[in-house]
Amino acid sequence: VELVQKMVDGITKIIAMEEELAAKNAGGGEVAAVGFKLPEIEPGFDAWLQGQLAASPADVKDTDEFRYLTFSELPPFTDLHKSLMRKTMTPELFAKLKDVKTSKGYTLSNGMQAGVLRPHLGVGFTAGDEESFELFKEVIYPIVEGWHKFNPETQEHKSDLDPSKVVMSDEQVALFQKYVKSTRVRAARNISGYALPAGASKEDRLAVEGVLKEAFGGLPAELQGTYYPLGGLTSEQEDALQAGGFLFQKPGPMQLLGAAGAGRDWPDGRGIFHNDAKTVLCWCNEEDQCRIIAMEDGGDIKGVFGRFCALSDSIKTASEANGKSLMYDAKLGFLGTCPSNLGTGLRASVMIVLPELNKDVHKLEEICAGFDLQPRGSSGEHSAAVGGKWDISNKQRIGFSEVELVQKMIDGVGKLIALEEELAAAAAGGAAPAKTPSAPAAGSSSYELPKIGDEAFDGWLTSQLAASPADVKDTDDFRYLTFSEIPPFTELHKSLMRKNLTPELFAQLKDIKSSKGYTLSNSIQAGVLRPHLGVGITCGDEECFELFKDILYPVVKGWHGFDPATQTHKSDLDPTKLTFPEDIASKFGTYVKSTRIRAARNIAGFSLPAGASVEDRLAVEGVLKEAFASLPEPLQGKYYPLGGLTSAQEDELQAGGFLFQKPGPMQLLGAAGAGRGWPDGRGIFHNDAKTVLCWCNEEDQCRIIAMENGGDVKGVFERFCSLSHAIKGAAEANGKKLMESPNLGFLGTCPSNLGTGLRASVMIVLPELNKDPHKLEEICAGFDLQPRGSSGEHS
Predict the structure, then answer these.
(1) pTM for this structure?
(2) pLDDT single digits (tens) 50-91
(3) CA torsion angle 625 628 633 636 (round to 10)
(4) Is the distance from CB of 208 to CB of 191 less than 8 angstroms?
């Protein structure tokens, strides 16, 4: 109740602010400027930051709403700081470079500022101009090697923008047109002699805009179009650009660009160009001086790449006509603000529908890995795709030419299409698809260890697998490892499990086993095999929370800021306690497009999915089916067992976003063993109105979701509570109870979802506050809310 009430109160405040801003804009009034504010990270670090800000001399690049800090000493980084800059920056290196300044006035402190103020950033360093890459190369080169696995000290980059070298047969063209829904190629270009956006003066910004407008004027006829300066947009133009996804916003202070100073003097000197056909698009003075994008519906990759190259050539020509050149370096390739986008800086992607491969995310990822491609599902990397629609793009940026990267994508996507057709043909004929060369021989285990990228660690993992005894929970396609010693974690391992698991603690817990057979090794397996995970530990049953509490409690504290050793959790599922008066309900009805509340419920006495036996999984399914049958009439519906879906049912569930897929091996659940025995014992329930939804035996035994279009938060919460009560009632009727602890609340597979495990969310349209994400984030922070833009947090 408290969490839903916080959301209601916070959204009410946000709506009031939105209306205030809209009224001021309608009346021509000025909106008060937001001054520069430091973030809150940790009390000790925050106090240090305040002292540094107070002592920082004025910087000629400062504005009323942004200050550049000058750090007098190496920042006392916190455990929250994860960036490569933090890893690279030693006291000696800081002392050596802290007084170095480019001719444009960009300093080491300027370059570090985003990474110091925003701990979540992965790179943590920005360049302010071309000189930065030489003067601060002792910081930048290790970052480049850490991010790209490319060493600028010993390697050189190559560029090739000749689209005629891309090979695409007529057969490939036809298949791409059949399967690919859209194609997009993008990169950045920056002009020597002018500062990059994080360090630019007004004068440089306007000069860049002038050169780019000249470039747009020199494009061939089919690429001719209109340049829209951001500061001069009419309401109609803004709506049209936003509808097409062409409009970019002022960067929020939690984003890399906002924290680095690239949002100063907004919107002067920024703008958007697109041609009449909307197949080329350029952003002026956003992250880089110019982001160039070529795109179109369909799969004509060669044509899209040709337009991309024409855009690049035009900007190069205009630069040279003004006595300039593009920023380019023999070692680093095309230069730009963030070291993550050096080299070609190119991302070539297709949106492709692969319904058969969508059923085997592991196979899709395997093929992509062979061509250095990055598949993204509906929720980003390592997730399945709603409707089978995947975004496939090149993973590499540097060390390969543009032609080579586009060719890799064509060849890899061609392989995906071939396998998709093979699987579809086999499904239509009722035959099992032929195994691809990487599949195991019949009768053998198909379980494969991942390649972490560290040779010694990969060798250690292989030996641990070979020495691991059989586990009763093993299946043909999954093995549980038994670690004989604490894993020799690599620098890629970032999880809280890794941080808290000491040799002494490992020795203390390694031989402990729950009555369901779940061990410490089972629990940490996902975090060992998948270094990118943030938590890195799973629970296989209710006993784990007691047996392994010496590792679980610190993980919970690190993730939630809640100490189960000294604090207790409380639950309240009485929707009548929610305050939601008619005037607020009316506002929500106007602004809120949809509402959704979800959490997990698990039944004591049965294992959790990461440790479940076939018997437990089927028993859980039986209890849940009983619960669904006992729901009140408006919530009555149908249960669809995943293993018994007709093609029509699968299509309908997928279209509604209700279908869940077998977890891929790179995901937490896949690596933890929650995909064993798929799809037996799994299923989906929804009511006729599609306002309640339950997933059986996915991450948890039951994920319960209540939702509807519009803003009736109270009604949605009531349905959520009814679902929870029905599952509790069915469990008790079977002599069981829900997994719940006074210290940890509702228990589940991942420690990140303990307590209420509840996520209550609204989708809301806020055009005025969208112009100032900082203000929106400030309001949300006051109510412990998390705003997510189109690209996730801080966007």
Answers:
(1) 0.67
(2) 999 999 999 999 998 899 999 999 999 998 898 999 999 999
(3) -80
(4) yes
